[in-house]
């Protein structure tokens, strides 16, 4: 599944009654005391969301796959996880661009000092 398709499937699932009515989702909210597990603010103060700690069981989550966060902490956690994935991603091999542009047999470029 491509990234765009995965994001679309994720969004559709999160908006679905299957997610809203999920036993695991409701169990996690109750276990957290209807409070954000990071900042400890409650549902009377903030909008609570249930974050997927893992996507291995996406669509058939257990309570261990989920954690309750307020919308602010959820946004920060999501951004931090994205940065970590980007940082840890393996870079493709670097290409000697001038050599590619001039041809494979061209001598390497020399920088002037």
Description:
The chain has a domain at 23-88: 3-Layer(aba) Sandwich (His-Me finger endonuclease fold). It is globular. The chain has helices at 3-14, 17-20, 23-31, 71-88, 97-102, and strands spanning 48-52, 66-70. It has a two-stranded antiparallel sheet. Helix content is 43%, strand content 9%. It is built from 5 helices and 2 strands; from the N terminus they run αααββαα. It has 113 residues and is mostly helical.
Q: What would the keywords be for this entry?
A:
globular, His-Me finger endonuclease fold, mainly alpha, single chain
Summarize the model shown.
Helices cover 43% and strands 9% of the residues. It has 113 residues and is mainly α. Pfam families: HNH (PF01844).
- Give the structural class: mainly alpha
CATH topology grouping of the domain at 23-88 = His-Me finger endonuclease fold
Portion of residues within helices: 40-55%
Sketch the topology as an H/E string, one letter per element. HHHEEHH
Summarize model confidence as the mean pLDDT. Answer: 84
What summary fits the major beta sheet?
2 strands, antiparallel
CATH architecture of the domain at 23-88: 3-Layer(aba) Sandwich
What is the CA-CA span between the terminal residues?
49 Å
Task: Give a topology summary.
Blueprint: H1 3-14, H2 17-20, H3 23-31, E1 48-52, E2 66-70, H4 71-88, H5 97-102
Antiparallel strand pairs: 1-2
């Amino acid at each position: 599944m491509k990234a765009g398709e995965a994001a679309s499937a994720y969004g559709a699932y999160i908006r679905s009654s299957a997610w809203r009515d999920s036993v695991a989702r409701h169990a996690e909210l109750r276990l957290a005391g209807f409070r954000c597990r990071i900042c400890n603010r409650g549902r009377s103060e903030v909008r609570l969301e249930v974050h997927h700690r893992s996507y291995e069981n996406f669509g058939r989550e257990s309570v261990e796959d989920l954690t309750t966060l307020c919308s602010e902490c959820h946004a920060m956690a999501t951004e931090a996880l994205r940065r970590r994935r980007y940082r840890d991603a393996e870079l493709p091999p670097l290409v000697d661009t001038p050599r590619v542009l001039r041809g494979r047999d061209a001598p390497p470029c020399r920088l002037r000092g």
